[in-house]
Predict the 3D structure of the following.
Amino acid sequence: MKNDVTANTAQRYLEKGLGHYNRGEFVGAVEAYHKAIELRSGQFAKAYFNLGRVLSDMGDLDGAITSYRTSLEQQSNNPDSYYHLGLALARKGIQNDAIAAYRTAIEQRDGVNAWAYHNLGLALVRTGDLDGAIASHRKAIEQRQGDFPKAYHNLGLALAQKGDLQ
């Protein structure tokens, strides 16, 4: 019975954190997520994922990366955590790890993850892999049935950087 009460209380703190986050109350969100994690003795992948999101939005990329990695240690089949880990790593300039995270996010969604393909393309440009970037942007556009202006823009930039202006 006590474990059920604790789990329910932890879930309520998670939901409270989501409410704070959605209202832009980041400090309240962080506090609620920490409490949820504490109540579950550190075993709450979803709370770690959401903590990573708010820390990333606050500019604490190291904290976000740690939170995403902890989430993934607890629940390895989690394409959203891999995708957001990739975003944080890319913002820190750790492109090769970001590329690996995006590729795992794509793989875990059976190859269907337009935003992961788009951000993979951006990271590949930063590492000089223009052919890979072009292919990734094209895949992102294809998966959104052509409705992906950002990917078209970045595809154009990659093609121009490669010298393919036709």
